[in-house]
């Protein structure tokens, strides 16, 4: 069974500073990996995804993530944070071999942006 | 572009009542997933359907049932509601079987049980 760990529950960052959110997964093979963002009371918006190929993935809103198989990690980065990036971020893993495969989410990281 | 539609967006029920949540997937999507997100929690997978057949099952209580209809929309039926069922319920849809299966999420239904 797959699992996801997001070690940081909260992160506070100054506007304009860089941001990195950590995600570690457990899965027997190469999983599908996703990052979602959720604003308070809102739905889940997909930031980026990794299925195969280039391990550095570009997403929306200036985010990128790097898949590192050796470290079972899929960390999310943004070079310069905007106040509108304050939200909760979820890393998720899916199982490629299963039809109707569920996503397993990490516990989330809440990002606060200081002016 | 069309997105996943969920109705209602908000629902208030009393304990022991029943509730029905509806999900309309993106056109041509044949797979539907239901997730439950409790307050301050991450989304937890409940159940999924592919081509109107249950394809996977997670931590869905026996009081809940779901199905996918011929037009691919899905309904989550919840009976004997408990206070702990108060949560945001997401539906997601995707196209196809195993392989690339990006899930697109709806805005969610917020269920409050009083």
Overview of this structure, please?
- The complex is a heterodimer of chains A (115) and B (114).
- Chain A is built from no helices and twelve strands.
- Chain A is mostly beta strands and 115 residues long.
- Chain A has a single domain, classed as Immunoglobulins (Immunoglobulin-like), CATH 2.60.40.10.
- In chain A, the strands form three sheets. In chain A, strands 2, 5, 6, 10, 11 and 12 form a six-stranded mixed beta sheet that branches. A four-stranded antiparallel beta sheet of chain A has the order 3-9-8-7, with no helix packed on it. In chain A, strands 1-4 form a two-stranded antiparallel sheet.
- In chain A, strand 8 and strand 9 form a beta hairpin.
- The radius of gyration of chain A is 14 Å and the shape is globular.
- The N and C termini of chain A lie far apart (41 Å).
- The model of chain A has no long low-confidence stretch (mean pLDDT 91).
- Chain B is globular and about 40 Å long.
- Chain A binds chain B through residues 32, 34, 36, 41-46, 49, 51, 90, 94, 96-108, and chain B through 31, 33, 35, 42-45, 48-50, 55-56, 58, 90, 92, 97-108, 110.
């Amino acid at each position: 069974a797959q699992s996801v760990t997001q070690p940081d529950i909260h992160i506070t960052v100054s506007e304009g500073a860089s941001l990195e959110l950590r995600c570690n997964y457990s899965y027997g093979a190469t999983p599908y990996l996703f990052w979602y963002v959720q604003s308070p009371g809102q739905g889940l918006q997909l930031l980026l995804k990794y299925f195969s190929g280039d391990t550095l993935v570009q997403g929306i809103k200036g985010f990128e993530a790097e898949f590192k198989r050796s470290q079972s990690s899929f960390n999310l980065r943004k070079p310069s944070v905007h106040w509108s990036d304050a939200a909760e971020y979820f890393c998720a893993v899916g199982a490629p071999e299963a039809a109707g495969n569920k996503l397993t989410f990490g516990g989330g990281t809440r990002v606060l942006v200081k002016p | 572009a069309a997105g996943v539609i969920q109705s209602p967006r908000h629902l208030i029920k009393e304990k022991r009542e029943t509730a029905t949540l509806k999900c309309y997937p993106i056109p041509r999507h044949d797979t539907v997933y239901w997730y439950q997100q409790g307050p301050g929690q991450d989304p937890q997978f409940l159940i999924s359907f592919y081509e109107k057949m249950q394809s996977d099952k997670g931590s869905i209580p026996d009081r809940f049932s779901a199905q996918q209809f011929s037009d691919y929309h899905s309904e989550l039926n919840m009976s004997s509601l408990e206070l702990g069922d108060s949560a945001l319920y997401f539906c997601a849809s995707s196209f196809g079987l195993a392989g690339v299966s990006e899930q697109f999420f709806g805005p969610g239904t917020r269920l409050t049980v009083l």
